């Protein structure tokens, strides 16, 4: 089964908490703090692996989570770093952040990798909070939060040559006689509902060819499986446009040729500008001097596109068609640099877990309670020992330093008013 789109949830590891411990040694009854730092949480990393061909595995497992960092320990020992989670995907996979719709990374080549969710930083142990005034800090810093997000994985085939055309014009047959691929072939529309790949060997060289499922009118708007089919053409370098020259189903070859090219241009203007050659298939049912064939050939070649008469089932004209495709690929390799797709990348590779902690927010509720909130504040709040005056003072100083008290005063805070931090409330006094 070919699976080219999947939605999964990823979550990095939480940072380990710093330790609150004190030296306990013989003859040192009141030893100082010696709590070590917590370990960093594991990252979630996507990596392109050449051994993979589909996104099928992601149909059965939808949640992926990296290991959390170990908590700090006594004797200033650091917690162990959480192990990174490596998620392997096929080359050609585009990773999209579902919430924003932005592309996180295009993993085009085997070995390409990037960090999609960074683990939380390890919290500092109480040894870091000792100073000349606070000799025995009875608190430590909690570990940084894990980062969780939903991502969409979208696989676009990487092929040198793409076979395009209406359903049932012979694309699968051309692929089968040109390569070692064995696509399903039958005389009804949409036999191919997923792209097939094969390797063409010619002139001691070769290229990858894809049979792109039949395109229909309205495909650019999603008719049929339009978007699923058309996106696989985006990375091909050369198009072989297959047309049923016999008109065996009452179709007009010239109209078919124009309609397919219109669908390509309406979906993405770049597709209509890709180098193209035409395979006039089913010539065993038409004479080469037939007026309809000659009119079609003249019409197409007037646009600068070469027409090759073929009969795929009996392997007539296939070698000439493939040789022309190979020559065109070689010409492109010499004339054009490798084209990169234009994506609106967002810098997901930064440590956005910690960046979000910089903000602190203030508001006032209907009952007159003043509220302070924020991600970094939540981290410090969770680390606060409310039975220890030094720990409470550290929390208060953080709020003051970040400008929250000044902001609360601007919206009416006065002495004796209640300040609420999550589920903790206290009265505000100027001389705290």
Automatic annotation (TrEMBL):
Annotated GO biological process: ribosome biogenesis
Domain Obg: 1-158
EC number: 3.6.5.-
Chain sites annotated for binding GTP: 165-172, 190-194, 281-284, 311-313
Location of region: Disordered: 17-41
Alphabetically ordered keywords of this record: Cytoplasm, GTP-binding, Hydrolase, Magnesium, Metal-binding, Nucleotide-binding
Location relative to the cell: Cytoplasm
Cofactor(s) for this UniProt protein: Mg(2+)
Cited Pfam families: DUF1967 (PF09269), GTP1_OBG (PF01018), MMR_HSR1 (PF01926)
Molecular function, one GO term: GTP binding
The OCT domain, residue ranges: 349-430
Binding residues for Mg(2+): 172, 192
Transmembrane segments: none
Comp. bias regions, Gly residues: 32-41
Keyword Protein biosynthesis among record annotations: no
InterPro entries: G_OBG (IPR031167), GTP-bd (IPR006073), GTP-bd_Obg/CgtA (IPR014100), GTP-bd_prot_GTP1/OBG_C_sf (IPR036346), GTP1_OBG_dom (IPR006169), GTP1_OBG_dom_sf (IPR036726), OBG_GTPase (IPR045086), OCT_dom (IPR015349)
Assigned GO CC terms: cytoplasm
PANTHER family documented for this protein: DEVELOPMENTALLY REGULATED GTP-BINDING PROTEIN-RELATED (PTHR11702), MITOCHONDRIAL RIBOSOME-ASSOCIATED GTPASE 2 (PTHR11702:SF31)
HAMAP family: GTPase_Obg
Recorded family membership: Belongs to the TRAFAC class OBG-HflX-like GTPase superfamily. OBG GTPase family.
Assembly: Monomer.
Protein name, as recorded: GTPase Obg
Organism, as annotated: Aminipila butyrica
Organism taxonomic ancestry: Bacteria, Bacillati, Bacillota, Clostridia, Peptostreptococcales
Gene name in the database record: obgE
